[in-house]
Amino acid sequence: MKGVTFSENTEKMQLDVEIDPLLIEDVLKADVFINYIKTTSFAAFYILKNSIQELVGTVNTARDEGKMNMITWKIGEYRDAELSTHASKDHMSVEITITSAYKGDTPDLEDVIDSLNRQGVVRGISKKRIQRLVNASLESEPGSKHSDIVAIGLPPRRGKSSHIIPLVQNALDRILSPRQADKDKVNMRDLGEIICVPVGTAVARRVAPTNGRVGFTVKNHPVNADPGEWHHIKLGQNTTIDKDDENIIRSTVAGLPKFEKLVMNIDDTFVTEGVNVKTGNVHYKGAVIVNGDVTEQMQIIADGDVTVNGFVESALIKAGGDIIITHGATGKMDEDDCQLYADGNIFIQHGQGLDIVVDKNLTVKKQLAYSKVKCKGSITIGDPKKPRGKLFASKINCAGIIRAGCIGAISGSSLEIDYSEAYNKLCGRVDAIGDLLKDLQRTNANHEIRMTEVHGKRIHNALLSKLTNLTDKLESERVLLDWLRNSEKELREAKVQYEESARVLAYQEMYPGVTIKLNNRIWKAEKEYLRSRIAYEGRVWKYEPII
C-alpha cells in the first residue's frame, strides 16, 4: 500500500504507522487497512481497531485538504497471553483457557501451576496437560483459545455392601483346583477330605460392608464416601443363621455344599460305594456321591449334583446341578448308551462314546472322542488355565468358546462343530420381540394422539372417572413399551455377544476334517494348522494363528 510505512517500537511494545496522505490513491477504509496489516510481517500485533478508525478519518481529511505533513499513529501493541480458570461447582475439576499472545509473553508450566496454587488448586494437577496447552498456544495464531481440564480431584468411592462368601468349596471347584500331592505334582483324584459337611458346619459368612474410599477436591478438601449397606442374608436350602453370630451360616443337615449366585445350599446327600446291579438305580431328591464305579445300563437321577469318584460305563446320569466324574466315562459308539444330562456344569477326566447335554460349561481333563455334545456354555478340553487336551471324531453343538490343545486327528476323522441352533433361537427371539415392539409403538402413537385430543376438550364431570381409567391404561402401555425397548436392546446385545463367543481355539494343532459352521457360513480345515484361532467376525469365519 503506497504511502504506508510500519515500524515496531520495542521500547513501548507497540506498532506505529507513518502515512503520507498525498500518496494514498483512494479513500482509506478501516477494514481494508486492517486486512492489509494481516498480510504483512506485523500481523502478530494486537490491532487497535478504534485507533485505526481515528487514523482513517484523519488521513482521509488530510488527503482531501491536500495537506503534506506525514501522519504517525499507534495502531497495534504487544499483549501477553491470557490465562483464565474455571472450577466446577463441586471443585472436583479445573479447566484453564489460554488465549495466545500478540507478540507478548506466554506463561510457562511453572507460571500456570503458580497461578493455580494461588487460587487454592493444589491436588490432581496434570503437568502434561498444562504443557500441551502451553505448546499449543505458542504454536498457534495470536488470539486463538486453547482449553483443557488440567486438575481433577478424586471422587469418593462408595463402600462395598455386605456379601456372602463360602467357607467350604463346591465339588467342581475342588476338582478344578486339585490338592497338591508333592512339590511338582497334583493328585487329580483327590477331591479333598471333606465332601459332605456334617450338621452345624459353618458353610458361609456374611462379610461386613466397607466404609468406602474418601475422595478429595482439587483444593485438597476431603469428600466423604457413603458406606456400603448391610444386605439381608438370603438363606439357601438346609441352612440357618448361627445363634451367636448373625453373620455365620450353618448347615442344618449333613450334605453336599453348593454355593451359587451368592446363596449357599446344602443338598441332602445320598452316598454309595458304587451303582451296579446290586445297589440298583439311584433316584434321589438331593445330591448323590458315588465312591466307586457306575456300571453298564445303570441310572442315577438326582435333583442336585452327582459326583462319581470312579468310572462310568454305558450308564445314564441326570443331574439338576453339576455332574463330576473324576475318572472317566465311556459308551458304545453310535448307540448313545452313555448319557450325561446336567442343568449345571459337567466335568469328566476323559470321555468316549458319550451323549452329553449340559446347560452350562463342559470340562474334559484329557480327551473327548466319538461323542455327541449339546452345550449352552463353553467347552474346555484340558486344564482350564492351559488347555492341552484332545478333541476329535465328535459332533458338537455349542454356544460358547471351544478350547483344546489338539482339535481333530491326524487320521482326518470328522469333527463337526455347529453354532447354529442356539444362534437361530436367539435371532428368533430378537425378531419376535421386534415385531411386538413395532405393533405396540403404532398402537401407542395412536392412543397418545387420541388422548391429546380428549384433553383438549371439555370433559363432563360424569366422565372424569373413565378418563382417569384411560390415563392409567395409557401409562401401563408406556411402561410395557419401555420394557419391550429394553428387552430388544438386551437381546441384540446378546446376539452380538454370541457372535463374539463363537470361536474355536487350538493351542497346539488343528487337523484336516474339522468343520465349523453357523447356518450356511462354514469353515473347513483343509490342511494341518499349528496354534490356531477360528472366530466368527463380520458374518464370516476367519482363521488366524495364535502367537
Automatic annotation (TrEMBL):
Span of domain Flagellar Assembly Protein A N-terminal region: 87-261
Superkingdom, natural source: Bacteria
Record-given protein name: Flagellar Assembly Protein A N-terminal region domain-containing protein
Lineage: Bacteria, Pseudomonadati, Pseudomonadota, Gammaproteobacteria, Alteromonadales
